[in-house]
Design a protein that fits this description.
The protein has 14 helices and four strands.
């Protein structure tokens, strides 16, 4: 009898463990729309869900009106296209984020597709901020020359976790920052499309950190990608902020980092809360629905603060020329055209660019040698290109 009892208990325990593992690795299908729109907490006929959806609709309307008013002002005074092109691209972040999040609240079974649009544009915003700071320095070629001059100055300590390294702000570092930004421009939309495909196959499972599901690997890839991009952006900003301080880059940098960084990490935090059972399911709502609902509601609120911040950080008043108004259509076409991003990507990752980087590293070492000799003899500050041997000049022209 005792043996039979232990056998039955063992079978029950194995069945329970198998059921828990099955529930852990199973996606909760967003099928609430097939049963109608169930309430989270019902108060008479007007639910808390309806109240939040209506409240966020008002917030979205405010943020969109504020952002489009600022975009229109820039397009009517589009007198510095090299700078305003990137400013307007950044300003479109608020309408895209807020509208996509609000639509995800109502059509939550389609939220993964709205997130696709939001995630793709996130990469455009981060790279636009980098290019805007480059334009504040006078363009990419001028920025390269500035970094070349900085190479003759004392070394700086890199940001954590690379703080044990001391580096020179040489030209190759500008190119490296650009490449680290561009990998995010490519990987962020790519992982978004992968997430859509995995969601269609019911193996994405938002909030499920099981290694058998796609959410863990997509999140890990995005975390590494955005970490490299933000590391390079912060390092670049710290190196050039004194050179572009007339443009008040600090508020612009924080305005973009506030939206991108906060929205990304708060999404991971909400998923972890659900994973550790600190966030529990509501009646008629799956955990996937609830985490998406909380995340999108928070984004709608945050976008109002971002829109107000943008009015201060990206003011159009510095571009106004008395009696001169530009065509909104012409400026809008220039902003939407992403050919410059594609051109930068091809140029940065083309094999020829790696040969150019080899030349820049060689030039950097020559500058270091020249700087050391200059302490003893100011007339001997290193070799210029004209002082190179004929074979080296030929190699230089081939690399460039």
């Amino acid at each position: 009898g005792g043996h039979l009892h232990r056998t039955c208990c063992g079978l029950k325990r194995r069945r329970k463990q198998g059921s828990m593992a099955s529930n852990e690795d199973t996606c909760h299908i967003n099928d609430n729309h097939m049963r109608g729109l169930p309430p989270i907490w019902e108060v008479s006929r007007f639910t808390t869900y309806d109240f939040i959806w209506a409240f966020t609709a008002g917030l979205v309307a405010i943020s969109v009106i504020l952002s489009f008013s600022l975009v229109y002002a820039h397009l009517r005074n589009y007198n510095a296209p090299d700078q305003q092109r990137y400013i307007v691209r950044i300003l479109f972040m608020v309408p895209i984020y807020s509208v996509a999040s609000w639509l995800s609240l109502r059509y939550y079974w389609l939220s993964v597709f709205f997130d696709l649009v939001r995630d793709c544009y996130e990469a455009v915003v981060v790279y636009s901020l980098f290019l805007l700071m480059v334009e504040y320095m006078g363009g990419y070629e001028t920025a390269k020359d500035t970094f070349g001059e900085k190479a003759k100055q004392k070394k700086f300590r890199a940001l954590a976790p690379c703080c044990c390294f001391r580096l020179h702000a040489a030209r190759w570092m500008l190119r490296l920052c650009k490449r680290l930004m561009l990998q995010f421009v490519f990987l962020r939309p790519a992982t978004a499309f992968v997430a859509v495909g995995l969601h269609a196959a019911s193996i994405y499972c938002p909030g499920n950190f099981s290694p058998h599901k796609g959410f863990l690997w997509v999140t890990l890839t995005n975390t590494l990608s955005i970490s490299f991009a933000m590391f390079s952006l912060v390092q670049f900003y710290l190196l050039v902020r004194q050179d572009i301080q007339d443009y008040k880059p600090g508020s612009k940098f924080l305005a973009v980092k506030f939206v991108v960084f906060l929205s990304f990490w708060q999404g991971i935090a909400i998923s972890l809360l659900a994973r550790t059972n600190l966030l529990t399911e509501a009646p008629h709502w799956t955990m996937d629905n609830l985490t998406s609902f909380i995340q999108n509601s928070m984004v709608c609120v945050e976008m109002v603060a971002a829109a107000l911040w943008h009015i201060h950080a990206f003011s159009y008043k510095g571009f106004v020329e008395q009696g001169k108004k530009t065509s909104v259509r012409t400026g809008l076409v220039d902003v939407i055209n992403q050919a410059d991003v594609w051109r930068d990507f091809v140029e940065s990752y083309h094999p020829r660019s790696y040969r150019r980087r080899k030349y820049e590293m060689l030039e950097h070492r020559q500058d270091d040698a020249g700087g050391e000799e200059g302490g003893a003899n100011n007339n001997n500050t290193g070799k210029g290109e004209e002082d190179l041997a004929p074979s080296q000049q030929k190699e230089t022209s081939r690399l460039l």
